[in-house]
Amino acid sequence: MKEKFDVVVIGAGAAGMTAAIFAARGASKVCVIEHRSEPGKKILQTGNGRCNLTHETVKAEDYGFTDKYKTDFLKSALESFGVEETLAFFDSLGVPVRNKGGYIYPYSCTALSVRNALWDEMKRLGVEIMADTGVKSVSDGDTLKLSLVTLKKQDAAERITEHDIFTKKLILATGLCAAPKTGSDGSGIELAKKLGLNVKTPLPSLVKLKCRDDSCKPASGVRHITRVEIMAGGKVVGEDTGEVQFTDDGISGIPVFNVSGNVSEALHEGRLVSAHLDLLPDITKEQCEDFIEKKYDLMQERKIYGFFGGLIPVKLLTAVARSLGISAEKRTGDIGMTRVGQLLTKCKKWELEIKETYGFDHAQVCRGGVDLSRLDPETMQVKETPGLFIAGELADIDGPCGGYNLQWAWTSGAIAGRG
Ligand SMILES: Cc1cc2nc3c(=O)[nH]c(=O)nc-3n(C[C@H](O)[C@H](O)[C@H](O)COP(=O)(O)OP(=O)(O)OC[C@H]3O[C@@H](n4cnc5c(N)ncnc54)[C@H](O)[C@@H]3O)c2cc1C
Fold first, then answer.
1. For ligand 1, mutation pick of 137, 151, 364, 412 (most atoms within 8 Å of CB)
2. What residues in the chain have per-residue pLDDT under 70?
């Protein structure tokens, strides 16, 4: 017997489950195919298990695209389904939220509550959920035929079965390659390509950065408010300020995550990339000079880390001093005014050469994905392939930390599901 659906969604992540719910609320016969046994695994990891599901205000400009087309595309999508609609959606699922300084979380601050609410609503609406099921092939045509492979586990035995289903509308919501252990292993990209879509190379974003040398090692474990400026080919390609975490071999923390997509792109293009760190972001160079002048006599007898200790954590200062060949153990008076000045200047602009990112395993999202110019932002439908829709991270949109990526998953999922 031919099993027919009005809508089939591939991928039970944030975007896919949202799409399935909106499609099913429109009274369609909906099926979700998920190649993992558990849906929404990535949601469980979001916001350190608390799920920062959106931000108080989300504007297209917040995503920081340099491409105006992308900003306009997102603006149009957010006008159709933005923060207000997202909060109403979660209210309809019975998930109250709390606002922590602009960051929106479920009131319980548990990501599990978000995943379970989406899952339960799909079941309530009668969405057929095919877990442990992969897509072997999708054949084109007026009605799409999907050849599926399901892994059936019974007692200790595993059995593979193959079957076909048919649908008029297909929503691809497979994610890209970030955090592949959660299911987004890149297999959706192959499906998208087979369906004739142009997919921009996925690159890791919201990810830690590795330095070319061990400059950071003495500072490992330190967290310090720092301005991060990324230089590639002589140009500034990203900047952010916040708490940077120093590791044995590099830098991490929200401001680093927020510039990491641009770093990935520059490295992918073969450019030399460096991070310029301002460890005293709210103190001007003149104020630094004034500080040395006023305090130098007083501090002559003290060790360098003592002299600077009120400004910069000792371990971090030791790392910066080491890059100038200065031991932070020395007395300020022994190295002289000029060297002290150089050290302060270095603290205002410490250059670290970036070798690579930590890759997809550690990335929260991916840069790249299905080319937006092929999609209609009002429906997420592929313009030249009626019946084929894209939702979530698989489309070429990624944002900074703070709820912007899940917002895109809800926005694009809802729009595609309604379509
Ligand atoms: C550690 C971590 C923390 C994060 N924290 C936040 C946060 O606090 N706030 C925020 O806004 N964003 C956060 N993000 C990003 C956010 O989780 C993603 O942007 C979002 O989950 C993407 O949703 P998606 O549905 O498009 O893709 P995914 O969540 O990746 O879901 C894709 C689904 O499709 C399935 N799938 C893939 N290929 C196939 C296939 N071929 N056949 C069948 N099924 C398939 C996968 O198994 C998966 O279930 C975080 C990400 C990570 C990794």
1. 364
2. 1
